[in-house]
């Protein structure tokens, strides 16, 4: 069947108009200093570092911590990131954080400027270096967690003081964890893309480890949540509720992009339907990767369509990948007002994407990132998202993403920035041990496990400013209570910030302040 030329020309007009709008349109006038927000969003990761801090660590109130992590197993597991406001190194969210930081650099690094690009790459490397050690130190073993979370959560301690057990947990062939292993492979592969030009030797090491880790994940299938003793220490914190299939699809997609090895695309084509390719999914998170994988695979589809100068409705160069374009369309169409599939229930009255009651901002930043990444891929191919009988241009997706970023930075009913240290009004009572307690430089004496709870329950402002941290955010009616005990609203997390880095980079580079 011949392509619908009227629809095709209409989409090309929309894309051309969208490009012009980005350059000239008043609707994308800067509401905020996005470059400043970008810089702060990256600094945040320096406050979450575990291990021996480098000279010039810009979160100067932080000190070294976890310097013997892994020692009881004769393995070096020093480094990495604490996920949120506690002192545990959880492998699944840390790997996802690293993947999203790397994707931010890979797709939007050109908008960051030389200085911030270097800082963003340093943030990627801090996570990737740790994951390399976790994946390669012991053959047949992937270390996936350091710290006993139940005991950690019974204390309120600075990371520099912590004396709770630094237990080490791993997945093996006998106790598989395809979800965390495949996410680790995705993180290593995405990091290889981020360092491909800046440090080719390092990128090669990352890619080699990514391939081996993916093979391990695929060969020994199972969820780490079901791996015996692991289930009690990863649940309910980071259970793999979505299973491991989505991570296998996600990792194979990243390995194809990182290596351009056709075998990974063959894997996707052969296994995609069994791994969730046929399921529409409307959230993207550290747990569920389906929407992200589909947008990433749409990139490959659109790229090959462009090379062959085919319309999206003509025979594709990579058979089967048009399915991922269709599902990516479904994902974004549900977010775009005025389309037949728009889901108004996904928004607060003030216009914030709303998915979950606790730490909702993680879904906002991932959705915002996917809107921008997909808009980029569509624009490069002269394509639109097909939403029923309506074509949605890349420019519409960019404008929607900008409204989410602006809400986070202060254009919201509460008139508050949800990024710490940005703007005149922002959260001052974070559910975060290090931020809430005196820095070691100010209070060198140890603050014990129980003694620290006085700081948790205090109404005083944080002793230290965790610059750039984005908190869990408001409720379904745009309400927000700045209360340290309300962790669903006031706890920051690395996987909230990581996608926002890419979004802020895009607006810092394309919208004049």
TrEMBL record:
Question: Which EC numbers characterise this protein's activity in its record?
Answer: 3.2.1.4
Biological process terms in GO annotation: cellulose catabolic process
Keyword Nucleotide-binding among record annotations: no
Give the catalysed reaction(s), semicolon-separated: Endohydrolysis of (1->4)-beta-D-glucosidic linkages in cellulose, lichenin and cereal beta-D-glucans
Residue numbers annotated as active site: 431, 482, 491
InterPro entries to which the protein is assigned, alphabetical: 6-hairpin_glycosidase_sf, 6hp_glycosidase-like_sf, Glyco_hydro_9, Glyco_hydro_9_Asp/Glu_AS, Glyco_hydro_9_His_AS
- Which PROSITE patterns does its entry note? GH9_2, GH9_3
- Glycoside hydrolase family domain sequence ranges: 34-504
Which Pfam families does the record associate with it? Answer: Glyco_hydro_9
PANTHER family per the UniProt record, alphabetical: ENDO-1,4-BETA-GLUCANASE
Q: What is this protein called?
A: Endoglucanase
């Amino acid at each position: 069947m011949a392509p619908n030329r009227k629809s095709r020309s209409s989409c090309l007009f929309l894309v051309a108009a969208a490009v012009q709008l980005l350059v000239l349109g008043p609707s994308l006038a800067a509401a905020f200093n996005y470059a400043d927000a970008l810089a702060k969003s990256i600094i945040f990761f320096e406050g979450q570092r575990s291990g021996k801090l480098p000279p010039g660590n810009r979160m100067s109130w932080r000190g070294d911590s976890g310097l013997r992590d892994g020692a009881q197993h004769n393995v070096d597991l020093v480094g990495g990131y604490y996920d949120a406001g506690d002192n545990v190194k959880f492998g699944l969210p840390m790997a996802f954080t690293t993947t999203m930081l790397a994707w931010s650099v890979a797709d939007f690094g050109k908008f960051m400027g030389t200085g911030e690009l270097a800082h963003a790459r340093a943030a990627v490397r801090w996570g990737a270096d740790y994951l390399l050690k976790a994946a390669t130190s012991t053959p047949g073993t992937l270390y996936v967690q350091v710290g006993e979370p139940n005991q950690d959560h019974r204390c309120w301690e600075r990371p520099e003081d912590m004396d709770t057990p630094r237990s080490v947990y791993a997945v093996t062939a006998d106790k598989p964890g395809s979800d965390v292993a495949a996410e680790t492979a995705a993180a290593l592969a995405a990091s290889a893309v981020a360092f491909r030009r800046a440090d080719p030797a390092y990128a090669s090491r990352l890619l080699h480890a990514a391939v081996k880790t993916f093979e391990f994940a695929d060969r020994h299938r199972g969820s780490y949540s079901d791996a015996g003793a692991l289930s009690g220490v990863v649940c309910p914190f980071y259970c793999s509720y979505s299973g491991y299939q989505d991570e296998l699809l996600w990792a194979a997609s990243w390995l194809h992009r990182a290596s351009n090895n056709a075998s990974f695309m063959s894997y996707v084509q052969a296994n995609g339907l069994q791994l969730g390719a046929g399921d529409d999914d409307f959230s993207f998170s550290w747990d569920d990767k389906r929407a992200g994988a589909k947008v990433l695979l749409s990139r490959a589809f659109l790229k090959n369509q462009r090379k062959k100068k085919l319309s999206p409705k003509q025979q594709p160069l990579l058979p089967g990948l048009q399915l991922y374009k269709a599902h990516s369309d479904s994902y974004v169409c549900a977010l775009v007002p005025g389309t037949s599939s728009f889901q108004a229930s996904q928004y607060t009255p003030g216009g914030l994407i709303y998915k979950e009651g606790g730490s909702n901002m993680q879904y906002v930043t991932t959705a915002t990132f996917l809107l921008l990444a997909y808009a980029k891929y569509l624009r490069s191919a002269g394509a639109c998202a097909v939403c029923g009988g309506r074509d949605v241009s890349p420019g519409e997706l960019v404008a929607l993403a900008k409204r989410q970023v602006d809400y986070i930075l202060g254009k919201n009913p509460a008139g508050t920035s949800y990024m710490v240290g940005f703007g005149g009004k922002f959260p001052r009572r974070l559910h975060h041990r290090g931020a809430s307690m005196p820095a070691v430089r100010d209070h060198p004496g140890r603050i014990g496990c129980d003694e620290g709870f006085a700081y948790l329950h205090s109404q005083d402002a944080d002793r230290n400013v965790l610059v750039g941290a984005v908190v869990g955010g408001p409720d379904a009616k745009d309400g927000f209570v700045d209360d340290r005990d309300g962790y669903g609203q006031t706890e920051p997390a690395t996987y909230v910030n990581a996608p926002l880095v890419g979004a802020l980079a895009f607006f810092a580079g394309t919208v004049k302040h």
